[in-house]
Design a protein that fits this description.
The structure is a homotetramer. By secondary structure, chain A is an alpha/beta fold. The first copy, chain A, folds into two domains: about 80 residues, Alpha-Beta Plaits, CATH 3.30.70.260; about 200 residues, 3-Layer(aba) Sandwich (Rossmann fold). Chain A is built from eight helices and 13 strands. In chain A, the strands form three sheets. A seven-stranded mixed beta sheet of chain A has the order 7-6-5-8-9-10-11. Chain A has a four-stranded antiparallel beta sheet with strand order 2-3-1-4, covered by helices on one side. Chains in contact: A-B, A-C, A-D, B-C, B-D, C-D.
Chain lengths: ~290, ~290, ~290, ~290
């Protein structure tokens, strides 16, 4: 039995002595902090901290781990902190949702296969059958849940059921072209990551590359964000842009955009999986 | 008397043989093409071309130049082209308008002084006196035209009068924080360049850095565009962005933004002065 | 039988009238120029031009195409131009060479499958068996040519033989970790594209990410270039960089670098396949 | 008498409990930590930390400040840490050295005037008289120390003397085109910041833009670094790049490069002045 690696994130109202309090707690618990980062939103007077540490073999598993977690939780709650503690060996289970365009979903599978993402990917769900062959030939399970069978409410119910049965921790919308219902979104707070194919808040809504072309912008972008009830308004995790010129047709913007979308979504997903993101209001802290 | 350098830009409905027609004309007129670039908007079926060339001493000045211009004009009109011919030695006269924040205006003066911009800058106008000392100590004329004296209409009339008297070719709004009236804008079509301190169309309107901060974007931008009656909707000439993180306050965004604004405005101005920009509808062709 | 799309590239010593000559020739041949771009290396007095056009049904195929090509060739040679004419429907055949790291090769296959590259990819060759399963499950042929069988000279001979039999037009080294012999390289001038995992000329040679880490640079890069006898010295087609910080270990640089390598190599390959690149000396013209 | 703002930086061999030790010390001393960041070089097993905090009025000035500093120092030395404590109100005095090209030096003056740099700039020194008028008309002192008077050793001695008399804390080489002697450099360890006009380690030495042009790179860069005895080998603080194409002559690279140099040098200087940089070996930690 060896050491375990864990990440603790805390959020609370700021006050003097917080850093010393948390550092002292972890020291008393015998952990070795390998990385610590913090942030203070001066306008809201809110304190955010992320601590990455190793715990010795006693606390690394079984009852020791439960006891360790209890002690951390008791202290944090005493300090009126919101807290999340995750051990790295508890890999998150990620469901990928996609429609017809596979570039993001297949890219995530390739990164997963290459060991770039520390998570499990038990299946890919789509409302269309088109990507079935590409997904299964890569060795992943493909689930087709078409809208036509019983309408949108029934389709979402089947997907929610699948997510529950498969003990999914996170949903990634890898160009899933359906708007999730508010009840779906509310059931998965800060647990649905979307890639929008524009530099939000510019060109929210449908066909952003066409909008960008018509407006004549000189840069196009992609934005990965948590999904909330307000479409394209969720907290942004990552964004990037690329140059375009008058020479480029809508199809060129789409092609360039695919590279942006792939990289931005994969980056946002990695940040989430490494517990680097804390969403608050419409914003995020993304520790690097 | 030596050779002269000129740029011809043409726009017309596309048809076969256009490139050969124009190339043949210039060859017959004895010019040496040093650079040619063209573009076709496939959706509008419109053809755009920019030709940079040298003309021999006969056509380089005086009556020869007028005759050369006439022949080019006659041919282009015969082909139903819009055309503009400009000789490089006819430097454009540029008026800089600014309010209180001098970073863009002073940067343009520094570039002008260093010979980076091929134009004349006879004066800087402001609706506030604040930058007078900084401008004049650099050796430039400063004109203060406050709103308070007679109201906005009177102030604009005084500025328009000044532009006319000084034979100004182009107006640069280098963080001029007043909205020009529609009649001012219409009198100067494609002859007013603005710098907007956001990545348009995101965060149009007032206080874009505050808007960007509140939205939690991960990149901020700057946009230089021609001014039209529709605020922040004019054809975009240049844009750029820079990364921001949760650590950065509004004041940090403003500071980073100043560097973006300076570089984007100077780039757009250079493109205009080198006759590289053709605006059409809400878009531009920017030949590189 | 419909129209055909073609690209003509010419290089020659610069002289007045060149643009008109070429434009006139194409007009007489009845083509419709859809894009033209040119460049002049002022230091070498060399002229480069790329013309993209459609030819009518008479010249689009069979004897008409041969006759068209002959006429273009005759004219260009009369003008002492180097010239290359390629019809778009004659897809190039591209061989991908790879060693153990598949990120670039698999990415190219995914782009090929998605129709992003206008070429044929008859096979992937590797000096190791590792990627065989990944390549074949995507429906592509995998050829393993290990060094161990007969040594390097024999291995290269087998690959050269394969390239000849399969009528390959272009070789892409997608992280092929062997140095090709000078005789191999000379047999494929400007027909081998490599991706080097650094911002050349910085960190040429082995383990560039380790070199970059040790030097403490704040940006890492990737460079795609034609392969010449001088290692890492061939004409550069495309480069890009990404930020890195003190937080990132060599393995992080490698991960970020994989994204750079994929995008830069794909971009360089597309430019080559669209006949946008003209190499001369150690440099390239890359028309956009 | 109000609170004071201070930054403590520590470097030491890594060991468990370090974070708790430092946090506990600062808590006992009654400071309020407003920002903390840390880094661990895993290969060297070295720990780096930067803490930004406010101290109450007792410790903010006079004997209280000295006593506070002593207590911090005693604790850090007990823990075998290298440490530096600086109060923000003790502005650093910065000397700008320049030769003939003023774009970086004048840009720093403009930023200083705008309040962007929290430092004093008592003078600008040059080995040429050319920039005297531009500097003095902006209201700064200009000192000309030509090489011709007594040779290089004498010139450096005069500059060193000036730096000492003026109690200078930091020297900025803003395109100072002379190589400082090893004895000068050794007298100012990690206190001389240079801007090199290339993406180091590419194109070290003279005329980097010409080198970049000749090599045909597709990006040019600028690098700001501490000066050490090994030319262009000092620890890098900041780098950035911009695209270039075959169209751009050496003079275009120089013009684009000037914008890069300005921004990169100003950024590096700000990082230094805010005590964000810790150099070690050939590398730096730059806390953001």
């Amino acid at each position: 039995m060896s050491d375990a690696h864990a990440v603790l994130r805390v959020v609370c109202h700021d006050r003097p002595g917080l850093v010393a309090d948390v550092a002292g707690l972890l020291f008393r618990l015998g952990v070795n902090v390998v990385h610590a980062d913090q942030h203070r939103d001066a306008e809201l007077n809110t304190f955010f901290q992320r601590l990455e540490f190793t715990v010795g073999r006693d606390a690394a598993s079984g009852p020791g781990r439960r006891q360790f977690t209890d002690e951390v939780g008791r202290a944090c709650e005493g300090w009126k902190m919101q807290w999340k503690l995750r051990f790295r060996d508890e890999q998150q289970r990620v469901a990928i949702l996609v429609s017809k365009r596979g570039h993001c979903a297949l890219d995530l599978l390739q990164r997963h296969r290459a060991g770039e993402l520390g998570c499990e990917v038990p299946f890919v769900v789509s409302n269309h059958p088109d990507l079935g062959e590409e997904v299964t030939r890569r060795g992943y399970r493909f689930v087709c849940e078409p809208m036509a069978v019983g309408g949108k409410a029934a389709q979402e119910a089947r997907i929610l059921d699948l997510l529950a049965r498969e003990k999914i921790d996170l949903v990634v919308l890898a160009r899933y072209m359906q708007i999730l219902s508010p009840s779906f979104v509310e059931a998965w707070p800060e647990k649905i990551i979307n890639i929008h194919h524009s530099f939000l808040p510019a060109f929210a809504g449908a066909e952003p590359y066409r909008q960008a072309y018509n407006r004549g912008v000189k840069l196009i972008g992609a934005t990965s964000h948590y999904v909330t009830k307000d479409l394209d308004e969720g907290p942004i995790i990552a964004q990037d842009v690329d140059d375009v010129s008058h020479r480029e047709a809508v199809s060129d913007l789409e092609r360039k955009g695919r590279d942006l979308e792939r990289v931005v979504l994969a980056h946002a997903l990695r940040c989430h999986l490494e517990d680097r993101v804390i969403a608050y209001g419409k914003k995020t802290v993304v520790f690097d």
